[in-house]
Amino acid sequence: MSAKFKQLSEEINQRANDWFVHMHSGNATDAEREQLNTWLSESPEHREAYQQLHVIWQDLGDLAETAEGHALKQSMQPASIFELPKRAFDALTGFLQNAMVPVKAYHISSIVAVSIAIVMVIFGVEDSGKPVVNHLHTSTTGEIKSIEMADGSRIVLGAQSEIQIQINEDRRLVDLISGEAFFDVRTDAEKPFFVNVNDVSVRVVGTQFDVHKRYSSISIAVLEGSVSVAERSTYENKTHSPGVVLTAGQQVIKPKNMDFEAVKTISDIELGAWRSGRLIYRDMALIDIITDASRYFDGVISLRASELADQKVTVTLRADQVTELPEMLSQTLPLAVREMPENRFLLERRINSH
Predict the structure, then answer these.
(1) Is the pLDDT of residue 342 over 80?
(2) Which of 70, 93, 175, 347 is the most buried (most CB within 10 A)?
(3) What CATH number does residue 284 fall under?
(4) What average pLDDT does the segment 268-280 reach?
């Protein structure tokens, strides 16, 4: 681990730990995600503590493929479900002290506490007893990251995005935890490829497509081939609730707590823009634009005019222009920009003087 962690208070570290573990538990609600965003916006130390856990998450994901990772796995095998936490604690304490994090830079006990949950995912087995390979990948602010899978498939992560990959003998599964990802899937009829994001599941055999988890919606768009999109319960419970089949040049959006919208067309240029450093937002909710663009910006943009959150907006900018976004929005919407210290921008309702 090359990152140099700041010494933060025990209270902030513990709060960040609690948030991080809960956000990756699969049980976080939309309201809780909003609460986390509020907490992160309150202080740069809050963001630093949470980002440090992202670094640990990434390093532990990379660890799974190293000699040290295999040794760590062996140290916990064989073990019953009741023995695993203790073995994980013992193995991680030694590993982190010797190889990853300077003890003076961060509370080692805090790191181990949050890392155990991650290790249980990385080195676990499915309830069915089938062997499963887990990989955890994250990207940082402004980073576009390419990931090559063992089967030849390729995933491109957008900025501040997180995925978990699980592969077993009969399927390939990716959970999009946050952000956006482009998938170039190698054909394998015997091992279908699934992407889960919130309550939506995408099923493919081999194709190229994009999945985007926004603040208030989920977007799926296809560049090549076709995909089947449905409620996650359709595949997990083998029910037959209606879904959507998308082919090349088509996109579907599912707003939060609502049905899928009508399928619409999308150009190759628009679909691939973010991978080339351009952000294109066409007829999108204001809150989605602000939240998404912030992934490419080392700061905070906060909307303090909730009545405008769902206002549809169209705007195009380069990924390195996000600092100009607040002013751009104020030119077409009744918004005033208030610039704060530490790269923070507040967008407030403009009050007419007459």
Answers:
(1) yes
(2) 347
(3) 3.55.50.30
(4) 94
Q: Do residues 234 and 325 both lie within one domain?
A: no
Q: Which of 246, 268, 290 is the last residue of a domain?
A: 268
* Four-point Cα dihedral 179, 106, 48, 90, nearest 10: 20
Residue 139, sorted as left (phi over 0), alpha (psi -120 to 50) or beta, turns out to be beta
295 domain-assigned: yes
56's CB contacts (< 8 A; 6+ apart) are: 1, 100, 101, 111, 114, 115, 118
Identify whether residues 213 and 115 lie together within a single domain.
no
What's the domain range around 173? Answer: 127-268
CA distance 264 to 64: 40
The DSSP code sequence of 289-301 is: HHHHHGGGSSSEE
Q: How far is CA 215 from CA 166, 238, 282, 351, in A?
A: 25, 28, 15, 27
Please list the helix, strand and coil fractions of the chain in percent, rounded to the nearest 5, in that order: 40, 30, 30
Q: Which is nearest to 135 in space by CA: 242, 148, 85?
A: 148
Evaluate whether residue 54 is within a structural domain: yes
Most confident option among 30-44, 95-109, 170-184: 170-184
Residues 247 and 336 in one domain: no
> Distance (Å, rounded) from C-alpha 7 to C-alpha 68?
27
CB atoms within 10 A of CB 240: 8
CA-CA distance, 246 to 226, in Å (whole number)?
5
Query: What's the average model confidence in pLDDT over 263-273?
Result: 94
Of the three residues 78, 95, 124, the one that is the final residue of a domain is 124
Comparing 219 with 38, the larger pLDDT belongs to: 219
According to the model, what pLDDT value does residue 101 have? 45
Name the β-bridge partners of 208. 184, 224
In a domain, 18, yes or no: yes
Give the pLDDT mean for 18-40.
74
pLDDT, average across residues 311-340: 94
Q: How far is it, in rounded angstroms, from Cα 185 to Cα 148?
A: 10
The count of domains in the chain is: 3
Whether 195 has a pLDDT exceeding 70, the answer reads yes
